[in-house]
Amino acid sequence: MKDQKIYIIGAGVAGLVAAIELEKAGYTPVILEGSEGIGGRMKTDEVDGFLLDHGFQVLLTAYPEARKYLDFASLNLKYFEPGAIIFGAKDTFIVSDPLRNPLKVVNMAFSHVGSFFDKVKMFSLTQELKKKSLDDIFNEPSISTYQYLKEYGFTEQIITNFFKPFFRGIFLEKDLKTSSRMFEFTFKMFSEGMGAIPANGMIEIPKMLRQRLHSTEFLFNTKVKAIQGTQIDLENGERIQADRIIIATQPDKFMKQLDGQFSPAKSVITLYFSLHKSFMGRAMLGLIPGENHLINNLVFMSDVSSAYSKNGRALLSVSILATDLKEKELIKAVQSELEALSRINAEYFKFVKSYYINYAIPTVDDVKGTIPFTECKISDQVFLAGDYLLNGSINAAMASGRIAAEAVVHSYMPIH
């Protein structure tokens, strides 16, 4: 049975984890990847002496699947300081550790962001979520995150100044419409672990997964055009006959019958600038409350990992959720906003590169933590993997790859 031809479409995190699990079960899968390398949405470029991730991405060390598949020590993780630098209309202040130790947050800084009661609420929420299992979180009724925060008793002040700018950067939408389950999950992960990046860029995560593979074959620059039954048609006209297929990317591209089954994904624009020196000077996320600005969040990547800059200049990552501006206008507008925030002349922010990421995270209406492997099955031979099946996170991408591989292994078991 183990000489079965199992093909995985997509060499992103979900596809790589599926291959790891299939190898463990004794199979030798083949991964078909449309681009020239692994990683899917998780890639890092080297440009002008900088490491540029495709969009601002963070690994949360409390992710259970990440702990299972990654060796954090070998990744040489560099950690963000918990909290945020908040660029208010009149003042800039630092709120340290609000999701991990809210009661220790310095009163003065916190009073700009929220009330004393917000601090107490934050503490009780942290304690509550520590006791709650992930299954409990994902089985709860779902309301919007905004409604959840209001019902929990948080003031509009802290929602505007902290929760909105912080979670907008994670959920990639402005109004906190994202499910309260996703909020609880993310809040729990932040309060139990750290936000981190591998020293040499996010690409190190898929690279590490690939190093765990010993017999899997990779076919790069191999674009799939259509899947019919167990037949894979490639764009170059070739035809592959498979025994089992795992589609580790959104399947409506190849399967006409799934057209229109998926909500449009959430997009983000990341602009990179270099500066002679970081004006933040610490490994922390910068947040801008309110609505009248393009920048959602910013971070000097070189403050988190010095390896992100090999030329002595500081590397600044700026995330923008939505705009109609053309690239040149956008760069100019963002440079002006950076000048207003930092009081450093706009022209000193040297533009490095922009990434317009149309598919940053999937829009998932029914957010889940896991699914039974029967739910990732399209037919007896074709299976799905990808974070869109669960929730938009690295954890979900890994879980979906594992579940799809389990489904394939199970499909070969004799029925009694």
Quick structural summary:
This is Flavin containing amine oxidoreductase. This protein is of the alpha/beta class and about 425 residues long. Helix content is about 30%, strand content about 25%.
Question: Which key terms come to mind for this protein?
Answer:
416 residues, alpha/beta, FAD/NAD(P)-binding domain, Polyamine Oxidase, Chain A, domain 2, 3 domains, 7-stranded mixed β-sheet, 5-stranded parallel β-sheet, oxidoreductase activity, Flavin containing amine oxidoreductase, FAD/NAD-bd_sf, Amino_oxidase
Question: What does the model show?
Answer:
This protein has 416 residues and is α/β, with parallel strands linked by helices. It folds into 3 domains: 6-40 and 203-262 and 365-411, FAD/NAD(P)-binding domain, CATH 3.50.50; 44-78 and 196-202 and 266-361, Alpha-Beta Complex (Polyamine Oxidase, Chain A, domain 2), CATH 3.90.660; 101-193, no CATH class. It contains 13 helices and 20 strands. Helix 1 (13-24) runs parallel beside helix 13 (394-411). It is globular. The two termini are 18 Å apart. The model has no long low-confidence stretch (mean pLDDT 95).
The structural class is alpha/beta
Helix count, DSSP H or I runs of 4 or more residues: 13
Mean pLDDT: 95
C-alpha Rg, in Å? 22 Å
Q: Any idea what the CATH superfamily of the largest domain is called?
A: FAD/NAD(P)-binding domain
Number of strands: 20
Strand order, largest beta sheet: 8-7-16-17-18-15-19
What percent of residues are in strands? Answer: 15-25%
Oligomer: single chain
CATH topology grouping of the largest domain: FAD/NAD(P)-binding domain
Principal-axes shape call = globular
